Amino acid sequence: MNYLLNTKTHPSAEDIYNHILSIYPNISRATVYNNITSLKEADMIQEITIEKDKARYDANLKPHAHFFCNVCKSVIDINLDSSINLSNINLGDLIVESCHIYFYGVCDNCSIEKRLQLIGIETYE
Fold it and tell me: Which of 33, 56, 66, 99 has the fewest Cβ atoms nearer than 10 Å?
């Protein structure tokens, strides 16, 4: 939980395991995965399914959206402006229990390189 509270990277279960393993070399993968499941079931963390085959985790439970960079695969928090008024949406008798908003595109770090590639300029590392 401390790791998730102190990271903005939205790590996968495997990322969390690898980080915890570097601190506690004898910890099992099952222990980490079971703790992730327990934290999720206790509504202490949220699971982000912004990628098809990879769940990520976030300890920030305040309402916010996520942005996924199609180039570097990073996930970035997007604060929702208070002007977004969901109460104007007529859902009839439906009861909304949760909402996930995902944006997809190219992050600032990748956009310069992508723009150069679009106009035919190769970039080298």
Answer: 99
How far is 15 from 13, CA to CA, in rounded Å? 5
Shared domain check, 83 and 47: no
C-alpha 89/C-alpha 74 separation (Å) is: 31
Range of the domain at 12: 1-61
Task: Tell me the pLDDT band of 109, cut-offs 50, 70 and 90.
Answer: confident
Tokens representing 122?
């190769």
The answer to whether the beta carbons of residues 75 and 50 sit under 8 Å apart is yes
Examine the domain organization and report whether 33 and 89 are in the same domain: no
35 and 3 both lie in a single domain: yes
Q: pTM (2 decimals)?
A: 0.77
3-state secondary structure of 13: helix
- CA nearest neighbour of 35 among 25, 45, 49: 45
